[in-house]
Amino acid sequence: MIIAGKSDIGLVRVNNEDNYIIVNNQDDNTLMLVCDGIGGSKAGEIASLTAIKFMAHAFSHTTNFTTVISAKLWLEKNLRLANDEVALFAEQNLEYEGMGTTLVGAMIFNQYTIIINIGDSRAYILKDNTLKQVTQDHSLVNELLNNGQITSDEIDFHPQRNVLTNALGIASNVRIDLLEVNQYDTLLLCSDGLSGYVSESIIERILNQVGNVEVHLNQLIQVAHEAGGYDNITVILAERGGAYE
Q1: How far apart are CA 229 and CA 231, in angstroms?
Q2: CB distance 55 to 75 below 8 Å
Q3: What CATH number belongs to 2-239?
Q4: What does the alpha-carbon distance between residue 55 and residue 5 come to, in Å, rounded to a whole number?
């Protein structure tokens, strides 16, 4: 499997509040995470970096995940510790009060992959040339959609389309979604700088084109720029058919 990531400030923002990590543990399992910070000024950047650094350090020292259950229990425990770490930093530094971050990720083993989701950054899988979103956005508009109060056509134009209902570091009872996927050709993690401005059909077309991971990453960043580049853009791709890079 070939894994690579890229983060881009976009064309409008003055700083990049996204952060990402690709890290292996002592058993050569892989954890990859994308975090999109919230809180304004540099608070979002600090929130996303705090979460990334905590999880990367914790995972790099792990070994012996013998079952899916043990891996999920580890994730639950350490994501809640990361949540506390972000909240504590904000508590001790009042200028960062209210900061938080989304977190979407994947823990990759030989036989299975665990998808992680907190917030509205997204995970997609490509299988048999078809792209599918595998995470559910923790957002107000998604709740309204699920409750039948708005239609999918109204989401992009809703005045509260950017309101999150869940994020890391905001509340002690953070919601953590964990799901297992086994069959895919490509796994994509991204912040909403890509998914919020580029259609799934365009993403699908790019991932199905001939080219290596770096080519696909650059093309995804480019189409986000062409859509306006209004937000920071971060993408990680894991593609079958090669060694980790």
Answers
A1: 6
A2: no
A3: 3.60.40.10
A4: 17
Other C-beta atoms lying within 10 Å of the C-beta of residue 130: 11
Nearest Cα neighbor of 107 from 167, 47, 169, 179 is 179
**Residue 124 forms beta bridges with which residues?**
133, 188
Is the distance from CB of 16 to CB of 49 less than 8 angstroms? no
The alpha carbon of residue 201 and the mean position of all alpha carbons in its chain are separated, in whole angstroms, by 19
Q: By the 8 A CB rule, do 172 and 83 touch?
A: yes
Torsion 179-221-49-191 (CA) sign? negative
Task: Please say whether the beta carbons of 63 and 26 come within 8 A.
Answer: yes
C-alpha to C-alpha distance for 229 and 2, rounded to whole angstroms: 27
Domain range list for the chain: 2-239
Quote the pTM value: 0.93
Q: How far apart are CA 244 and CA 179, in angstroms?
A: 23
For 148-174, b/e burial (b = at least 16 CB within 10 A) is eebeeeeeeeeeebeebebbbbbeeeb
The pLDDT assigned to 145 comes to 80
What six digits make up the tokens of 53?
A: 């650094």
Phi, psi of 131 (to 5 degrees): -90, 140
- Cβ–Cβ < 8 Å for 207, 140: no
Average pLDDT along the chain, 245 residues, taken 10 residues at a time: 98 96 95 94 92 98 90 98 96 92 96 96 98 95 82 76 91 95 95 96 97 97 98 97 45
